[in-house]
Amino acid sequence: MGNNDILTLFDVDGTLVRGARCHYQAFVHAVKKFYGMYEDISGINYAGKTDPQILREVLELGGFSERTIEKNFQNCLEYMIQYYLKNVHLENVIALDGTKKLLDILKDENVLLGLTTGNLEPIAYAKLNRVALDQYFPFGGFGSDYAERALLVKKAIKLAIAKFNFKEEKIFVIGDTPLDVAAGKKVGARTIGVATGRYNSEELLKSGADYIMDDLTDKNFFMESIGL
Ligand SMILES: [Mg+2]
User: pTM of the full predicted structure?
Assistant: First the structure.
């Protein structure tokens, strides 16, 4: 019933929440353990990239060959998850303004809610659980599914069709980076750029977002954007 012909797919970092100290530490500890790499990796721009993409970039920065990178790549990602789950109580994550209210309204309106994030799936849910936002998202596409963002968005859409009888009519991808916008466009979704990450409204507009929001507090604008 209701509006399950509308699918909204939310990014996590910079869109729903801010703060990922523990997530960052998971990268640091994992590359130390499996590659003996101690370089400072704080200079990399992680925004909008998937965890496997970031890990690869970090290791390439460390000068490792493709063969060496491949050898422990999956183990390294797995270790990151274990590290994160063990230390998530130290995560400094906070929910961004307006998120909970907006999600409550969308849920009440029976709009389908999914995640599209580069986070590895267990990390995404543990992170959102810290601020009680995990419960809104029964499915999604994650960095643990695909390194390429457009593919994980596609996966989320497929799940919506399979699990919720979604008719693939109105799809909205909500994210804070040009990479979110690009991935959404690639799968034919409408995109909502939210300027709560490291990109401002102009940059998101320039990347081709259909709608721009300073943050997620303007519920009316959001609802109008998705046609409600
Ligand atoms: Mg983001």
Answer: 0.97
